[in-house]
């Protein structure tokens, strides 16, 4: 059996084990083997590695859900891609449930994700069903575009479909990491007046460069919601929480004007205390946002191709697969925007 190098997640609080395992083989007619070129590191991975968030497939498991690659081999019934195509891997949806049929496949009842329900892309090869593949336009760089399928698509969905940012809306983005920084970019492109909130100056500087009209360093002000309300003249129309911290969700709620909306983009396993009376009396809205729609990729590619949306500013470090544990150490420090592992 052919072998490949992969980083294996075996148990919580242990480093990933970089080793040789069997290279996946086509089993179903609709399987595709993708040769991974690069894969982004995500805080979701740290949830599994550091915090014991359970994965659907029990370890040992190959993590990594943000890859780009080249189609290496296809099953006999695959028609949407051919060998040699440059691809991104989106979520694996069923196409048949209530949500899929109502255009909301991102909350598919049988949603599967590589690096969680099945082996992911911190490996030389990954096997997926053909339907989740998206062809990458020639104009976009293969390696750097790996971050699109999660860190770019999810914020696009959040800004456009969930937060519904409009011209002149005040938008506070809490957390300017890999996802938050792109909420800043998309909200700015959608015509929002963005206030970026973070605790790191270099992230806030990048937020400014990518369109924020104001920045707040949460470590340097006494009361973050008050500061945001001051800048926006009474509270933002929309607050986007991109960290996944219950206290920050509460801050976002407090920074939002009456009748405004909080969009929760960050994943938290704890619940925030919420002022239910204000929710009702002041007609507050709270909405969640997860992943995105495959139908949005074409528009996203066009916005990148035309230079309106910047992916080139997102990747702050690159590691070979052998050094993936060092890459996660850097992610833990919280200073990076997006870190990728490169397979060659
Ligand atoms: Zn992710
Ligand atoms: Zn479905």
Any overview of this molecule?
This protein has 344 residues and is α/β, with parallel strands linked by helices. Helices cover 26% and strands 26% of the residues. It has ten helices and 16 strands. Strands 3, 5, 6, 7, 8, 15 and 16 form a seven-stranded mixed β-sheet that branches. The model has no long low-confidence stretch (mean pLDDT 96). The structure holds zinc ion (ZN) (2 copies).
Task: Produce a short descriptive summary.
The chain is an alpha/beta fold and 344 residues long. Helices cover 26% and strands 26% of the residues. The protein has two domains: 3-151 and 292-342, Medium-chain alcohol dehydrogenases, catalytic domain (Quinone Oxidoreductase, Chain A, domain 1, Alpha-Beta Complex); 164-288, Rossmann fold.
Find the CATH superfamily of the largest domain.
Medium-chain alcohol dehydrogenases, catalytic domain
The SSE order reads EEEHEEEHEEHEHEHEHEHEHEHEHE
Average pLDDT rating:
96
Number of domains: 2
CATH fold assignment of the largest domain: Quinone Oxidoreductase, Chain A, domain 1
Unreliable segments of 5+ consecutive residues:
none
Round the Cα radius of gyration to an integer and report it.
20 Å
The ligands bound in this entry are: zinc ion
What class would the helix/strand composition place it in?
Answer: alpha/beta
Strand count, sense and barrel status of the largest sheet are: 7 strands, mixed
Give the total of beta strands: 16
What percent of residues are in strands? 25-35%
The CATH architecture of the largest domain is Alpha-Beta Complex
Mass-distribution shape = globular
CATH class term of the largest domain: Alpha Beta
Portion of residues within helices: 25-40%
Q: Counting H and I runs of at least 4 residues, what is the number of helices?
A: 10
Report how far the terminal alpha carbons are from each other. 22 Å
